[in-house]
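Anyone opening a protein record will find just a pair of labelled lines. With that in mind, the following record should read easily:
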Amino acid sequence: MPIPITGFSHVRITVTDIARSRRFYDDVLGLPVASDLPPDADQKTRDELWWLFGGVVYQVPGGFFGLRPVAPAGDTFSEDRAGLDHVSFAVPSRADLDAAVARLEELGVAHDGVKDIGIGCLLEFRDPDGIALELWADAA
């Protein structure tokens, strides 16, 4: 009998520098923080939030997106190795992709422009660790 999957719960990516990655994701996506470790946390709080690994978890509609800062400095991402290819976030419309282009350009984030692939449109870019990200809008 198949396992009754109802959707995604969360995705967490491994990053090299939590401060740099937080700035990027806060500036680009602006997601609300669901959990993070306060800098002045006592040991009891640190023990309870061990699963954050010093990172942050953002709330996204229908689940969570987390950053886990345990990669060694200088490590690099490749979608051509076993594991993650990319993370795609849904947006409501093509107009939102066009607005995202303007936001990425304002922040100096390189991107490949909006691509219409028939079933939808996508906008590809990378985070500070080179992790492939995408914004997606279903075809109207």
